[in-house]
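Q: What changes when P-hydroxybenzoic acid is included in the input?
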Amino acid sequence: MQGVSVKTQVGIIGGGPAGLLLGLLLRQHGIESVVLERRDRAYVEGRVRAGVLEQTTVDIMRSLGVGGRMDREGLPHDGFCISFDGELFRIDLKRLTGGSQVTVYGQSEVMKDLFDAAPQRGLQIEFNAENVSLHDIDTGTPSISWSQDGDLRQLSCDFIVGCDGFHGVSRTSIPSDVRREYEKVYPFGWLGILAEVPPAGEEVIYASHQRGFALASMRSRTRSRYYIQCAIDENLDEWPDRRIWDELETRLGPHAARNLTRGPSFEKSVAPLRSFVTEPMRYGRLFLAGDAAHIVPPTGAKGLNLASSDVLFLSEALAHFYNTRSPTGIDEYSARALARVWKAERFSWWFTNITHRFPDTTALERRLQLAEIDYIRGSTAAQTTLAENYVGLPLGSGGAAPTHHSATAMRLMEES
Ligand code: APR
Ligand code: PHB
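A: The predicted holo structure follows.
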């Protein structure tokens, strides 16, 4: 192949949260990588996504030395609320899980911190990398080619990691007869807004209403993030701010909406909801991590947190390989990651099912949804199940038993 050719240990495709966290974790282990990102920094940072970090994600940020701003500006939450049929109750995460919390800190802020740290840590990121393609992934000498500034470039590496999200090129480079894909597309979307107004409450509120789901969240004490369930092909022109606020007030219910502060929205978009898993998360010298391998509906905010645990597992496995030349860790990666992924898929699917209105929901099924939520309200056992999933299941639970851990993984597992 002609053009500029470089060499590294791990070639990472995609510079979202999965790609950057992985690059920084590998640097910490003394492993070199290059990140190839199709877009520019402003685009990646500007995408508005969920904003609830599990303790594991918080700990990874801290262990990388990039948690300073998160610790100052992030909002630790000890619980969240559920509203249904005009009622409101609280899930006390801290009490139910023996001390765990979540931290509200937007993904854009996480990306800002990771991008700022990259040059200081010597992590090379190539932005505007077009036509990325993978070569020889089933050999010991894989490579990636791309075009940039009119040049054809090539990266030779030991391993490739696909962190390029659901629409990336990595997953589909795995032959289709090896890939098993599981998918459900939900028959609705989420219309999300950001507004420079104080949040409706101290904590996040999930609302199940006859007219559909609603969610009151936040980015700071002065910036709110709201969502309402809508049609997949909803026309945003039909949703002026006033209609959104009215709908939020109705769906959140009288208690939750009591402190709803209205104001102009400065971001308004519709996101689809999907459950998706591809197996295995490895083929030859290619590994998949984050949204490239799995998607969850946002109910429960697991997407970014799953990307974090994937790349923690993978960085451990690659470090083990480079330190010992033993393939045990990289051989176990897919099963270990998938064991946690499937449980988060189950949780996000279940939480979506009990809180959303489906087109074919019968009156009986609506009553069953309400009975289930009422059961959660009255049962410590049910609340504990919800809480332990919400704060994030332990890193080591289920699936393949990992045979090696670094100090970071050991500490995170002991704490979780
Ligand atoms: N070549 C290079 N880069 C690509 C390509 C490609 N062909 N295709 C996609 N990318 C880049 C995207 O521009 C994006 O920046 O890969 C990145 C993938 O990032 P995400 O979609 O955010 O996926 P991930 O890093 O796995 O993060 C998972 O973050 O964005 C959320 O909803 C997501 O919460 C989930 C979590
Ligand atoms: C958000 O703040 O964007 C958010 C919070 C909780 C969710 C999903 C999204 O479950």
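Observations recorded in class: Residues 328-355 form the longest helix (28 residues).
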